[in-house]
TrEMBL record, chains A, B:
Stated family: Belongs to the CinA family.
A Pfam family recorded for this sequence: CinA
Transmembrane segments: none
Species per Swiss-Prot/TrEMBL record: Alkalitalea saponilacus
Protein name: CinA-like protein
C-alpha cells in the first residue's frame, strides 16, 4: 500500500510558503507503518489539481491532499474534487452548525464566505473540523482513498491525528517501518562515512543508512522495514551499539531529542539551575532553552549583553579586560560565565561572545570567531571556534554548541 | 516554458527534513520571470528518480533536481541520470582538483568517497562547485534541460545564483511575473476576505489575489503576469493604494520585509536605541532583533527575567507589585519596560510577561495570557492579549506583537 501527499497552493509554487505539512505528515504516517511514495506540490489551478490526483491515483492507493479549502476565491480544491469524482456540491447543515459554533466568539458576524464552507461534495464522507471552518473530505471509490484537508498546519494536524491516521490504520495492516536517528556533532559527512564504512557492511542488509548533514552536525538515520517490529528494533539497537566505539564522544542525542531538552532533563535530575550570558548568540540560547515546556524549573534567566556597558553592569565583567583583550576573548567570555552564575543566581552558566558578521571582523579575529565558556561559578571552561562567514549560521551554531557542550560537561562530571 | 523542481532524498519522504530548497528556488526563478509548474519529492531510489524525471520531461522543458549527490552510499542521483541519458560515468580531472582544493584545509586526508565525486556522466556539461565537493551537472537533449544540483542549501543556492539562473535567462525570454505581498496584522482570513470583496472585483483581471494566513497575521499576495513589466507593476501598486483605506491600521509590512528590520531601520533613522525585557518570550524578541545584520547599532541588549528575582535585581521591578498583582500583570510589565530603559541604558524598551504554557494557567489568567509594554523611559503603553494554548505559538506571537506594535508606536509618534 502506497501513500502520496499532494499539497495545493500557489504560495508553494512561488516559494512564499515552505511546505512543512508534508514532512510532519510523513513522520506521523511512518510511525503508523505507512510509507510515503511521493510528495507533489501544485498550484491552485483546477487542471493542475486534477492531473496531480489522476497521476497519484495511478501509483498509490491513498492520496492525501492539503490546502485550497479556505473561504476565499483562490481556493478551488473542492471544485476539482467534484470534477474528479463526478459529483456536485450540496449544503450540509451539520457543517453549517459547526462553522457557526466555531466562529461565534471569533468574528462579529458570519459572512457568505464562511457559510459556503457548508457546501460539500455529495459523494464523500465528511469529517468534522473542530479547530477551523473547512471540513475534511474522505472519498473512497474503487479501492482508491482520497482525503482532502485544510492547509493550515494546526487544522491538518488535528484531522490527521484524530481521524485520518486512525481510520487508515483500521483499514490497512502494513509492513512495519522503524527509524532511529543518531545526532553526531562536529564530524564532516565524508569523514564520518569513511569511519563507518566497515560498520555499514557489518549491519544487516534490511537496515538502510542515510547521512543528513546540517551546519556543524549530522544526523545518521538507520531505517528498517519488515514484518517483525521486535526484530527490526533490536537490529537497529545493535547497529547503534556497534556505532558507539567509533564515534562515542561525538554522539549528542537521538531521534527528535533536542539538546536543550536533554540539558534541562539533566539539570532537573540534579536539581540544579542554569542561566545564559549571551553576546553574539543574541538571545537564541535563552530562546532554545525556554522553548522547552517546564524550562522555568531550571532556567533562571539570561542577559543579552550586546553593548559592552551591559557586560560590565549586568555581568560584572572587568572593563580593563575588554580594553586589553577585546570583547571577543577568552578572558571576557570566562568572566561573563562566572558573572552570570553570581548575578543571575544560577548553579551553572553558558556564555558567548563572537563576531556574527557580516561586519566587525579583523585579520586577527575574522567574522565567525566565537568564544564560548561554561561555568559553575568557580570553575570555568572555555573554547574558541570559527563558524564561518554567515551571520544566521554563526548565531545558530554558537547557541547550539553552547548547549550541547554544557550537556556533555555535566554528563562527564567535568562541571 | 515550464520549470519543474524535483527534490531527491529519503529524508524528505520520511519527514526528517523539510524541503526548504524548493521555496527558495521558486522565489529566485520567479524574479527571473520563470514560473514553477510543479514540485515533486521522491526517495533515493533509482526507479523513483527515473520516473520523476520522465514525467517532468513530459510536461516541462526545464527540470531542476536537488539532492542525492553526496559522497555516501545512499546517494544515487548520478546513476539515475546516466540511465536516463544513456551515458556512463567518466573521471574528470578538473573536478578532482576542485575537490582537493576544497578539502585541503577541512579534512585530514581525502578519501575514496571524496574522490568518487570526480566521476561524472560523460554526456553533460559540468558546472564547478566552489562551495562543496559535488559538481553541478547540466544535461541538454532534444529541447529538454535537466540540471542536477547538491541538496545542501548553500551549495544549491550558490549554483543557482551564479550559474543556473544566468544560463536559463540567457537561453529563454519569458512572460513577466511580479508579486507584491502585503502583511496584515490581527484580521482573520474570512473577515478580511469579506472586507476586500469589492476591492477584488475592482482590480484588473490579470491580477491574482491569494490569502496566506499564519498565526496572528496574514499575507495578502497580489500577483500579475503579462508582457509589460511596468504595466503589471503599476497595476499592483494601484491595487495596494486602493487597499489602504480598507485596512490601513493593520498593514505592517510588505514582501520579505521583516518587522524587526523595519523597527531597526526606524531606530537608525532617529538615532535611537532599544532594549528588551522578556519573561514569557524567553529571549526570542532579542533573537529576532539581533538576527538583523547591524542590529548592534541600535540594540543595547536584553534581559530574560524568567525568575522573579531577576525582575527585581536586573530590572528594578518593585517586589510588592509582583506579590500584589502577580508577575503577569499590567503593573509588572510596565515596570519591566521602564526599568529596561534605565538599567540597560536604551531610549526605548519592549517588555513581555505571560503564561506560555502548557502549565501555570489559572481561571483568572489562563495559559496564553500575555502582557506587553512599550516605553521611552518616561511614558509607558501596555496591552494584554490571549494567544491561546500552544507554547511555541504563544512565544512567537508575543515576540512578534512586541516588535510590530513598537514599530507602529514609533511611526505614529505615540512614543
Amino acid at each position: 500500500m502506497q501513500v502520496e501527499i499532494i499539497t495545493i497552493g500557489d504560495e508553494l509554487l512561488i516559494g512564499q510558503v515552505v511546505d512543512t505539512n508534508s514532512a510532519w505528515m510523513a513522520r506521523e504516517l511512518n510511525k503508523a507503518g505507512m510509507f510515503i511514495n511521493r510528495i507533489t506540490s501544485v498550484s491552485d489551478g483546477e487542471e493542475e489539481i486534477l492531473n496531480a490526483i489522476r497521476e497519484a491515483a495511478s501509483r498509490s492507493t491513498i492520496v492525501l491532499l492539503t490546502g485550497g479549502l479556505g473561504p476565499t476565491r483562490d481556493d478551488i480544491t473542492k471544485a476539482a474534487l467534484c470534477k474528479y469524482f463526478k459529483t456536485q456540491l450540496v449544503f450540509n447543515q451539520q457543517i453549517m452548525d459547526d462553522v457557526e459554533t466555531f466562529l461565534k466568539h471569533r468574528v462579529g458576524h458570519i459572512n457568505q464566505l464562511n457559510k459556503d464552507q457548508a457546501l460539500v461534495p455529495e459523494k464523500c464522507d465528511i469529517i468534522r473540523n473542530p479547530v477551523g471552518t473547512a471540513p475534511i473530505m474522505w472519498f473512497e471509490e474503487s479501492g482508491l482513498i482520497v482525503v482532502s484537508m485544510p492547509g493550515v498546519p494546526t487544522e491538518m494536524k488535528h484531522a490527521m491525528e484524530n481521524e485520518v491516521i486512525p481510520r487508515l490504520k483500521a483499514k490497512f495492516t502494513n509492513g512495519i517501518v522503524r527509524h532511529r536517528t543518531v545526532h553526531i556533532f562536529n564530524i564532516p559527512e565524508a569523514v564520518l562515512a569513511e569511519m563507518l564504512s566497515d560498520w555499514e557492511d557489518q549491519i544487516p542488509a534490511f537496515l538502510k543508512v542515510a547521512y543528513l548533514p546540517s551546519p556543524g552536525k549530522l544526523r545518521l538515520r538507520i531505517s528498517g522495514k519488515g514484518e517483525n517490529a521486535q526484530q527490526i528494533e533490536s537490529a537497529i539497537e545493535n547497529a547503534i551499539k556497534l556505532l558507539y566505539p567509533l564515534v562515542k564522544e561525538n554522539i549528542f542525542g537521538f531521534d527528535d531529542e533536542k539538546p536543550e531538552s536533554s540539558l534541562l532533563n539533566l539539570l532537573f535530575s540534579k536539581d540544579k539551575t542554569i542561566s545564559c550570558a549571551e553576546s553574539c548568540s543574541g538571545g537564541l540560547m535563552s530562546h532554545l532553552i525556554t522553548s522547552v515546556a517546564g524550562a522555568s524549573n531550571a532556567f533562571m534567566g539570561g542577559v543579552v549583553a550586546y553593548s559592552n556597558n551591559l557586560k560590565y553592569n549586568l555581568l560584572g565583567v572587568d572593563s580593563t579586560s575588554i580594553e586589553k583583550y577585546g570583547a571577543v576573548s577568552r578572558e571576557v567570555v570566562e568572566q561573563m560565565a562566572k558573572g552570570a552564575c553570581k548575578r543571575l543566581g544560577s548553579d551553572y552558566a553558558i556564555a558567548s561572545s563572537g563576531i556574527a558578521g557580516p561586519s566587525g571582523g579583523t585579520d586577527e579575529k575574522p567574522v565567525g570567531t566565537v568564544w564560548l565558556a561554561w561555568s559553575d561559578g568557580e570553575k570555568v571552561i572555555s573554547r574558541s571556534f570559527n563558524f564561518g562567514n554567515n551571520r544566521e549560521r554563526n548565531i545558530l551554531r554558537t547557541a547550539e554548541a553552547g548547549i550541547i557542550i554544557m550537556k556533555q560537561l555535566l554528563e562527564r562530571g567535568t562541571l
